[in-house]
Structures are given as C-alpha cells and as structure tokens.
Amino acid sequence: MLLYEGKLSILCFLSPTPILVLSLFSYLGIDTIFIEIDEIIWWILLSYGIFTNLIIHILLTGYAYQVAVRAVFLGFVFASGLLVAFLLPDSLATFGWYMCVMAFFHYSEFLTIAITNPRTLSIDSYILNHSNEYIIAAITSWAEFFIEVYFFPELKVLRPVSYVGLCLCVGGECMRKLAMLTAQGNFNHVVQSVRRSDHELVTHGVYRFCRHPSYAGWFYWSMGTQMILVNPFCFVAYILVSWKFMNDRITVEELTLLNFFEDKYLEYQDRVGTGLPFIRGYRL
Length: 284
Hints:
single chain, Four Helix Bundle (Hemerythrin (Met), subunit A), about 0% strand, mainly alpha
C-alpha cells in the first residue's frame, strides 16, 4: 500500500488541475465567466500557486511539508508547461513540452520510489539537487534555447524534430520506470557498496534485454529533452557528457555487483548487454 508521503505528493502534484480545467474550457471556446481567461491565466496561476503554498505551510510541517512543497512546485511547472505549449507562439511552445517532461521526470522518480522501495524514500528521491553538473547542464540548455529563439526563431518550429524528441523522452521514461518497478527494493538512486541480506540480482522483465535499463532510459530521455528544444549544440554535448557519466557509473556499479554476485553476475554479463551504445561495463 502506498505510504502517506506518496499519497500526499500525488495530491500536491495535481493541485494545479483546476487552473488547467479552466484554461481548457477557454481553449475549447466554452464560456465559463464573463472575461477572457487567456488574458489573465498567468495571474490566476501565480495567485493560485501562492495560495496553495500558503495552505501547505499552515497545515504541514517537517518532512511532510518538504515533500508537499516540492510536489506542488513540480505540479505547477508541469501545468505552466502545458499553458506555454498551447497558449504561446510556436517558437516557444516546445519549451512548454520540455517543462512538462522535466517536471514529470522528477516527480515520478519520487512517486516510483515511494511505491517500490519506501524504506529509502527521502527528499532526495526527487533528485532535484542531483549535482552541480546537472544544474549547469540544464541552465546551459535553457540559454541555448532562448538565444536561438531570439536570433533563429524559425529553428524552433521544426516540429518533427521536437516530436521525435518527445517520443524519445516518453520511451526513456517508460524504460526507466519499468526498471524501477521490476527491481522493486533492489533499486536505489545511490550505488550500494554493501550488500543487504535481501538484495537479489534481477534478471527478469526489462532486465532480460539490458543490464542497466534505468540508466539506458535516462540516457535516451536526456537526449530527447534537447531534441524537444531543437538545441543542436546541447544535443551533441548531452550525448557526450551523459555517455561519459554513464560509462563511469556503470563501471563502478558493476564492480560492486561482481563482488556481490560473483559468477552469477559474470554469466549475466556474458548473456545481456548494458543497453547503452559502446558501453561494456566492468569486465574481468
């Protein structure tokens, strides 16, 4: 059964839903009130966001508040992304889809851990503060997007590229979450150096096709984010940096897995690839 923090996060992530419904009615031409919603929707969203944060600040404290405020933030980023995608000019619309993809990824990481491995659940499960390098990479991609929007707006309306990127993000997201759901308590955001008594080698489900589906899913998801934005420079940079990061991480992780499972993992290595291009993992 889903623990309290998981249920709380769902409620908070979905808190902007009334604003989206109101905007949808306006988008479809359904009269709701005697003013143009599109003209004030951003003020409505901002006011509702401030009100929501005030409510959770009054009602919650400690860990529950930390869970809620992050879920609310990600929910409003997701909602804002949908509004950007449907209400702003085409050259900016793709940034809205990017906002949705980013918000859903970080929120779903927390929720999936709450479902599969609740004993390890923490604020860090949102992986919002993943690393300084991750933050720098994100800011760099935003800078490239808006610089190119200003100088080359026609570049950002290459919808086929954005659609392929969105599909890549959805596919990568599904692959990663399937890996987490399959591994259950054996999955952890942090590479483990000490084997727990209940730690098992997972080779079924999506793990039949690749040894590291969660890493592979994230790798393809990260590529997809830059295709959504049609960021040619960051697309290449993300591939190179993500590949280097994954190669190093998998090498370290497989060293520990070989120590944990010995011949059993050796046989698994020989039978199944990593799922990432040109990454073989740690080999004896």
